[in-house]
Amino acid sequence: MAAPQYKLTYFDVRGRGEAARLMFALAKQDFEDQRIQGGDWATVKSTTPQGFLPVLETNEGKISQTTAINTYIAEKFGFMPDTAYEKAQAISVMLTLNDLTGRISSQLYMPLVYKVMPVPEDVEAKKKTLAEEINTCLAFIENLSNSGSKFIFSDKISVADIFLFTIMETQRQVLPELNSDNEWFLKVFNNVKTDPRVQEYIKHRKTSPLGV
Ligand SMILES: N[C@@H](CCC(=O)N[C@@H](CS)C(=O)NCC(=O)O)C(=O)O
């Protein structure tokens, strides 16, 4: 049987694609990291299953939707939690963070970071609302976590920790005024960030033109 081949197609930013890249790095699994530049997107869009990215190509077929991609990689490389209940909760965490990302992206990243939309007049009100939504989302994740452990479910890193870290890393960097002071979240975030394998990845990862 041929060795598994993986190709991740995403934009040249971290965003929804970074958790997949980080899991491949932690698993020491080679993959093709195809990064689409803005000007090429119109051509690439029609080749994707649903008209958006990320897309993961595997030797079994193409996978569309961030949560499906992350779940697949996590199952293959040992980043899913152990029990059926915790697996479902990990997916719930990822879907919650993915929804949040969509709202932050359309309301703030597009105008302020990617600069592809005019800055809305009520930008300060939007920041306030989204900061509250971030806190609500983190409180939801904290509530289903095992609060005594290093990561969300246990002392073993899972796909939910990796997605939480990659999504919040970008958010904290580009919109620091939205940062949460939830102590439980800061503990898990720092436990992921200071993992020596994650540090090694961060040291060598490709930077994007936008720095995110
Ligand atoms: N539900 C999808 C949403 C994907 C999504 O909105 N991707 C954005 C980039 S983060 C995109 O492809 N935008 C370009 C477009 O929609 O034309 C997922 O979670 O993967």
TrEMBL record:
InterPro entries xrefs: Glutathione-S-Trfase_C-like (IPR010987), Glutathione-S-Trfase_C_sf (IPR036282), Glutathione_S-Trfase (IPR040079), Glutathione_S-Trfase_N (IPR004045), GST_C (IPR004046), GST_superfamily (IPR050213), Thioredoxin-like_sf (IPR036249)
Domain of life the protein comes from: Eukaryota
Keyword Acetylation (UniProt): no
SUPFAM superfamilies membership: GST C-terminal domain-like, Thioredoxin-like
Signal peptide boundaries: none
Record keyword Zinc-finger present: no
GO biological process: glutathione metabolic process
Pfam family, one: GST_N
Residues annotated as domain GST C-terminal: 83-210
Entries under Gene3D superfamilies matching the protein: 1.20.1050.10, Glutaredoxin
Keywords: Eye lens protein
Molecular functions per Gene Ontology: glutathione transferase activity; structural constituent of eye lens
Domain annotation GST N-terminal: ranges: 4-81
Family classification: Belongs to the GST superfamily.
Designated name of the protein: HPGDS
Species name: Bugula neritina (Brown bryozoan)
Phylogenetic classification of the source organism: Eukaryota, Metazoa, Spiralia, Lophotrochozoa, Bryozoa
